[in-house]
């Protein structure tokens, strides 16, 4: 699967044909894990062999950082399928039915070709793997090809021990073994590069998600703080108004007490002057005026009590809203703490992944040391073989020059020397030499 700023269809097709035969190539615009309309940013490629997929990932691992390469020029990334993965639904509903129909058409074409049957013998029965759809086999091989590096290294180590115990250490075997170890080392390095790239992508996605959540929580916290500040300002305003009302109520209370004192004084004066009511006929009008003033003071006190009750109700409502804002702020703080715990857990997981990568690197270094020791052993054996060949050629020249002049005893001693040389050549894995100087055929036991 290719993801990024994809070029035109012809450019992508010409680039992918160099890695193998393309069975299918589909273009999608993927946003938020869903297929939407727009310019394509994702391409799902199906090859006819697993080797082509491995070559694609190897090319991406080795060339994505090189200026002028296809991966660097178009900012394209090669991503393997995961099980389960976000593109399984798209593959199963939009790619897989098309591949099945293509395979069915190919089978019908092969059936209509009427090829003649093979004479004699019976055809081999296909294995269980041949009954699976080819695309399903490719997806299974792709998922198996991106397994853990440590498992691959363990399999190579066990194969190395079995091979070294069953095959003698001949120069040909050493040469083949060096080639095999070099190929295994290159494959392990490519797999390690792919794993590192996938981990980098996962780390970037995780950091982006954490940054988005952190910004969202910060915005919510700022909004809650602004609401809390507004409620606090309203509460301060209401409280200051309540203080003013209390001050006015205290002033009115003092006025009422003063009026009550006046009323008591007036009542006392009224009792004193009732005896002389005839003399002070106009005093009744003053008493009525004082009574009216008292009623006005009582009505004003009642209005102040009503206003006080309304202010207390408003204060209770403001206190309730303040409590709600405080509880919401506490919830946001608990969410922030939980996200910090999740961040610590993610960092611990990342540390364990880095430790596994370090162990894999150490395994690769041990494999390189084994390769170097095997190569040194091969060079030493090659030098010994050259020395033995030079000695053999010298003996042949001497035997050819002195064959006609040697006595029988000397000839026998030369035969013994020839036998010892043949035994030495057999010991180092070379075919023996005949008396005429010809190389005898190598036995099966050698």
From TrEMBL:
Region (Disordered): 106-171
Coiled coil: 203-230, 287-384
Domain of life according to the entry: Eukaryota
Bias (Polar residues) ranges: 156-168
Organism field: Rhizoctonia solani
Keywords on record: Coiled coil
SUPFAM superfamilies in the cross-refs: Tropomyosin
Basic and acidic residues compositional bias, start-end: 128-146
Protein known as: Uncharacterized protein
